[in-house]
Design goal:
By secondary structure, the chain is mainly α. It is built from seven helices and two strands, in the order H-H-H-H-H-E-E-H-H. Strands 1-2 form a two-stranded antiparallel sheet. Strand 1 and strand 2 form a beta hairpin. Helix 1 packs antiparallel against helix 7 and helix 5 runs antiparallel to helix 7. It is elongated, with a radius of gyration of 21 Å.
Length: 202
């Protein structure tokens, strides 16, 4: 596949992934689809950080717009300049998606913030978080989910589902960006001879 076609395919693929990340992160801010929890700061730090909105969402879309830059100018120097620009935008998308992936993984591993009925009575905390090394991760013990939180309703399933979606979408973004990064490097090193087509928009 030539560089122009690769840019087109990567750009087209990243757009729906970015939209999915933004929607998933917005939903994470409203457990049980209620505004009160984010207003009262009863939402996890990973959700409030909103990496799915500004990192895997906005910054990735900015990078996709960078893939679309082109001109009718010809020549080896101009071609390499275009490839360097694509390299920079791809690095931006790669770092943004990677950051979202790590934040989402952390949120998934630590579990939701909820009203838990523990030994000290009702308290807002993360009851499913691993307390010590060697404890079984709550993801492998779904029987604990229903009794872990008094409210928001169904917050464990809500967090697991949406953080999993964020991890999957941002992980795919990382893979696509890594592939595009390799083609951009190839374009810089080899020049226009490695692809007969001019640089075209995504």
């Amino acid at each position: 596949m030539c560089i122009a076609q690769c840019s087109r395919c990567v750009g087209i693929a990243l757009i729906p992934m970015a939209v999915v990340c933004m929607v998933a992160n917005v939903l994470l801010l409203f457990p049980d689809l209620k505004f009160q929890y984010v207003k009262e700061h009863h939402v996890t730090n990973e959700a409030v950080l909103s990496s799915g909105i500004w990192a895997s969402g906005f910054l990735v879309l900015v990078a996709v717009r960078g893939f679309a830059s082109h001109s009718d100018q010809k020549g080896c120097c101009y071609f390499r300049t275009q490839m360097l620009c694509k390299f920079g935008y791809t690095c931006l998308a790669l770092v943004a998606a990677g950051f979202c992936f790590m934040v989402s993984g952390t949120g998934l591993a630590l579990g939701p913030l909820c009203l838990h009925n523990g030994t000290e009575g009702l308290k807002w905390e993360r009851p499913l978080k691993k307390v010590k090394h060697g404890d079984t991760l709550y993801l492998y013990e779904p029987e604990r989910w229903a009794s872990a939180c008094e409210e928001p309703r169904g917050v464990v399933t809500w967090n697991v589902s949406l953080f999993s979606v964020l991890m999957a979408a941002s992980g795919l973004q990382v893979i696509f960006c890594a592939i595009h990064l390799l083609t951009a490097i190839l374009g810089v090193l080899c020049g226009p001879n490695c692809c007969k087509n001019k640089v075209v928009p995504a």
